[in-house]
Write a structure and sequence with these properties.
Length: 357
């Protein structure tokens, strides 16, 4: 793939960042560009910022786009949301970005994208065993890779410890919010990582997220069974990983075949016949794509303009539309939402239910 590029976008709570990525080396071919995340971070506003980000680069039309996003993603659809606007739940992000940029688009959970990059190019390069790549930021993201294959959407940042959603208590944002010392925060991480080890028994833990730049302040304070190392790609991991996944998916779509390449092939046999997983992350060929059945459901949703997204979209329209060149971006009617995404309740609510029963 030498010389070929794909464009990676990383959507975070404070910034939306993007850059073209050399697919052979995993290096950014141009400096990363960052636009502050619009507030409120509604679907319409965010998709239009992604389109605006793209317009800052002079990219050939066939360059695919990958979007790394902080939620579980099923078939390009945001299945659940912890830290951005709740109106995201059920939104078909892949379709919206495709419409807004006119490019082949793949959407992947941000931790999965970062984990993919760390195994392909970084701290876990070529690791044959089970690797847990954990990102510590606003939330806790977890990518599980075993034998080079990814288990997508492992939302293990939300395991319940002492009746609390672990990320609310142990993420880097908790350290900042509560003014915790490195030692106090490390005690929480010790508890959290020990629990992860007790459940998953990984061969290696890789720690990413912005705070991993200061890994020497907290990793030496942890006493764990498996080796624990800082991420090598730091905060470009999401961009790099999702760009490579987008390129793989675009190539597979072009070939008209189900992809069996790379980490993302792992779930394909287990997902046979599953309406969401067959077109969702984990199946290689179709990460971020919608199946014909989903397309008709999403067309119905566009017609019906599901209340949550439409309201959120209208609120975000001013912020998003004003900044976007007329040749790119989407309008509210192009943000399709699944009326009934059947989302799971927040982890803390689940804990309450368990304790009550
Ligand atoms: C989200 C995950 C995400 C992680 C890191 C969590 O709150 O539920 O999907 O990977 O934050 O952004």
């Amino acid at each position: 793939m030498t010389g070929e590029i794909a464009f990676g976008v990383d959507v975070g709570g404070s910034g939306i960042k993007g850059a073209p990525v050399d697919l052979a080396t995993g290096e950014l071919t141009e400096e990363r560009f960052k636009i502050p995340t619009p507030q409120p971070a509604t679907p319409l506003a965010v998709v239009n910022v992604i389109a605006e980000l793209l317009s800052h680069f002079d990219l050939p039309a066939e360059v695919p786009v990958g979007v790394s996003f902080p939620s579980p993603i099923l078939g390009g659809v945001v299945a659940w949301m912890s830290n951005l606007d709740q109106s995201w739940v059920g939104v078909n992000l892949a379709d919206a970005v495709r419409l807004g940029t006119n490019r082949h688009t793949t959407v992947v959970n941000d931790a999965d994208a970062a984990g993919y990059a760390e195994v392909a190019f970084g701290a876990a390069k070529g690791h044959p065993g089970t690797v847990a790549v954990m990102t510590l930021g606003t939330g806790i993201g977890v990518a599980l890779i075993t034998g080079g294959k990814l288990w997508p959407n492992a939302e293990l940042g939300h395991i319940v410890i002492n009746g609390r959603d672990a990320e609310k208590w142990a993420a880097a944002s908790a350290k900042e919010r509560e003014g915790l010392s490195w030692t106090k925060w490390a005690r929480r991480l010790q508890r959290y990582f020990s629990e992860i080890d007790r459940l998953l028994w990984p061969d290696l833990i890789v720690v990413g997220g912005g705070i991993s730049r200061k890994h020497e302040r907290f990793l030496p304070l942890l006493d764990l069974r498996p080796p624990i190392v800082p991420a090598a790609l730091r905060n470009t991991a999401g961009i790099v990983g999702v760009a490579v996944l987008a390129a793989q998916e675009a190539a597979a779509a072009k070939a008209g075949a189900a992809s069996t390449t790379g980490l993302s092939a792992g779930a394909s046999s287990a997902s046979k016949g599953h309406p969401q997983r067959t077109s969702g992350p984990g199946t290689g060929a179709a990460i971020g794509n919608t199946s014909p059945a989903e397309q008709s459901r999403s067309a119905a949703a566009i017609a019906g303009a599901a209340a949550g997204a439409a309201a959120g979209a209208a609120a975000g329209a001013a912020a998003g539309a004003a900044a976007v060149p007329v040749t790119s971006g989407v309008n509210a009617a192009q943000i399709s939402t699944f009326p009934d995404p059947k989302i799971a309740p927040p982890a803390e609510e689940l804990a309450d239910q368990t304790q009550g029963g």
